[in-house]
Specification:
Blueprint lengths: L10 H11 L10 H7 L3 E2 L5 H9 L5 H9 L3 E5 L5 E5 H19 L12 H14 L2 E2 H11 L5 H11 L2 E3 L13 E4 H5 L13 H12 L4 H8 L5 H7 L4 E4 L5 E4 L15 E3 L18 H7 L9 E4 L2 E11 L2 E8 L5 H18 L5 E6 L2
Parallel strand pairs: 12-13
Antiparallel strand pairs: 1-3, 2-3, 2-5, 4-6, 5-6, 7-8, 9-10, 10-11, 11-12
Helix pairs in contact: 5-8, 6-8, 7-8, 10-12
């Protein structure tokens, strides 16, 4: 099939396909671990958003399910796609971390890494590995030890370089819902063991990574895959995968690729209201985000300091933002629409918000849902 003859998918068609892949057209009876793997990880720049993301996607999700996965080392938080923290399964940490190391290597070659050009980073990383595998340490603790060993160097810069060179896991209780404490790190190999004794972990494969992306975010362009992963030159990977793919076009003539049997629901399929947490990959994983959010609304959701605010969906598209406040023991979910919400959706949104408050903050002395307009 040539690109010219490929079927055209409009914005609503792409929207419904994305929602179906993202488990947002209906809540699914699926374990949290299976959902995390299906989504190819969940951005976890802050510890709590993935919990809300799973609650919005899964039937009967319990917040302590992820805590158990992290304590049992079946799921963990580690820097992966786009050089950002993700909550992933242990299997995916092993499979994806080697593929995304190039992003951190490039960071070391950036101007920020210039002052380190004469530093033996292999020696620094080797010494830091020993320290971090003795016991998990915070960034401040590691910097203090690095300063003692290399007093003539910038300890903060050395600590950053260590985070670029070594695959570091943020260990619990960091990342556990309701827990507090500093982020402490050890190496991926130390946390999981250097080798998978059962031999069940997949081999790192960029081809498989692209196919899994399409399963969770497609149909998509090469630029979309690169936006999600942070990797470049993926056109040659997609070209290699063409026998396994189906081609489409968007309304602007861009070529889109997809798995042949992946869901592409009718564009008029009803889409329920959904609460989407901060930093959710739903909004971060396409170069062209028109399938989920307008450019005008994107500018309100994406802040200049890198914060991606929590949003809500009406008829499948971002319609506003929300946040939870805790004051004097009470929990309030505040909803800030970008434009008036139709009454049926407003009622459904209030009910959804009340359910989230009950699930996320059962100990609150009172729950309330407030619309700004």
């Amino acid at each position: 099939m040539t690109t010219d003859s490929a079927p055209v998918l409009g914005r609503r068609h792409l929207n419904r396909a994305l929602l179906a892949r993202q488990l947002l057209l209906a809540r699914h009876e699926m374990s949290a671990l299976d959902a995390i793997e299906h989504l190819v990880g969940m951005q976890s720049q802050a510890p709590n958003p993935p919990y809300v993301g799973l609650w919005s996607r899964l039937e009967g999700f319990a917040f302590d399910e992820v805590a158990a996965l992290m304590r049992d080392r079946r799921a963990l938080r580690i820097v992966l796609m786009r050089g950002t923290l993700h909550l992933v399964s242990a299997r995916d940490a092993r499979a994806l971390r080697p593929l995304t190391q190039v992003l951190l290597d490039n960071a070391l070659r950036s101007p920020r890494g210039g002052p380190l050009k004469d530093v033996d980073l292999a020696a620094v990383a080797g010494w830091a590995r020993t320290l971090l595998e003795q016991e998990p340490r915070s960034d401040k603790e590691l910097r203090t030890l690095l300063a003692e060993r290399w007093p003539e160097e910038d300890a903060e810069l050395l600590g950053w370089a260590v985070r670029c060179v070594l695959p570091l896991v943020q260990v619990p209780p960091r990342g556990i819902w309701g827990a507090s404490g500093l982020a402490r790190h050890t190496t991926l190999g130390n946390w999981l063991g250097e080798a998978d004794p059962a031999g069940t972990d997949p081999e790192p494969s960029v081809d498989e990574m692209v196919l899994r992306y399409l399963g969770a975010f497609g149909p998509a362009s090469v630029l979309d895959v690169q936006q999600w992963s942070g990797l470049t030159r993926l056109g040659e990977v997609v070209e290699r995968l063409l026998p396994k793919l189906r081609l489409f076009q968007d309304e602007n003539g861009r070529t889109l690729y997809d798995l042949p049997e992946a869901p592409r629901p009718d564009p008029d399929t009803p889409a329920p209201v959904r609460l989407v947490p901060d930093f959710d990959n739903l909004l971060l994983s396409h170069a062209d985000r028109a399938r989920i959010i307008t450019e005008e609304h994107r500018k309100r959701v994406f802040t200049i300091n890198g914060i991606i605010r929590a949003t809500f969906l009406v008829d499948g598209f971002v319609h506003g933002m929300w946040r939870i406040e805790r004051k004097r023991g009470a929990a309030t979910l505040r909803i800030d629409p970008f434009s008036p919400v139709p009454e049926p959706a407003r009622t459904a949104l209030a009910e959804e918000a009340a359910r989230l408050l009950a699930a996320a903050h059962p100990d609150a002395s009172a729950h309330s849902v407030v619309f700004s307009s």
